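Quick one: co-fold with ribulose-1,5-diphosphate.
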Amino acid sequence: TEPEVVDEVHGVAADIGSMEIRGAATIADTAARALGVQAAESEADEPSTFRAQLRAAARVLYDTRPTAVSLPNALRYVFRDVEGTTVEELRTSVRASVAEFRDRLDTAQNDLGRVGANRLRDGDTVMTHCHSTDVLACIETAVEQGKSLSAYVKETRPRNQGHITADALADIGVDVTLIVDSAARRYLNDVDHVLVGADSIAADGSVINKIGTSGLAVNARDRGTPIVCAAQTIKLHPGTLTGHTVDIEMRAESEVIDDEQAAKIGDPTVLNPAFDVTPPRYVDAIVTERGQYPPESIVTLMRDLFGEGSDHPWDA
Ligand code: RUB
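Sure, here it is.
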């Protein structure tokens, strides 16, 4: 029989799949929390059953979305120091690692915010794509430092995460202008910094982020506008150290067009990739909680932090 996975884990997995819970840092935080709930609510009598259930819960969470490496990095972090010879010891140990992970994630984002804020000056205008909590941390810190900022916010079709960004920026007093994605190039001349997040960073410094990031970066380079990626080190993809590429999630056609509209225009093939890859030469800097890096040198940090590999300790 399948090891029992608690309802909360299935619920969180469904919410990640439907993007009710989304964004790389939030996915990592929520997945770790769900493992903690699995540990807390497990009714296992035997340590081996407890461990099998924890692995099964991790597999349910891992199978939700493929691109944000923060998800497997979070699961690995929790699995790394699970210790104990009784169920109670194991339970305590999982809950401690989960708490430690979530705490570190929080601290990392605050530290990253301070590093990124140093790039922003009073009166600057930024352009954003999608909704990134790491990007918002930089802007929020700058605003707290008393800097007054404006933002061009790309709507980010098809899911319009730009609306979330617009709302968050308006809340902290940033002067927001919402634009359609294809208007980005037109306004790049008025922009001092393009700020994007990341779902994964590859060993060569490529930035994997919301579809449209690579086109924005090429245009920014063409216009001479600096483009910065704000990404906590949890976004560093250890598998790319040994030559793996990052899976780009393909999402449902229905996010782009509904059946009725599609029928009216001859039922075209619809492709809906959620992410793309921006080569390092189009990115000026990657801002992490450990400082700023030229993309090409991020590999040194990746080796230090994730050199031990990219195994899946939750595989049965
Ligand atoms: C979200 C997205 C964000 C990164 C970084 O894509 O591409 O830029 O995940 O976000 P989706 P954060 O909406 O498809 O999940 O900085 O919050 O980790």
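If it helps, Strands lie at 125-128, 150-154, 175-179, 193-196, 200-201, 207-210, 227-230, 275-278, 285-288, 291-293.
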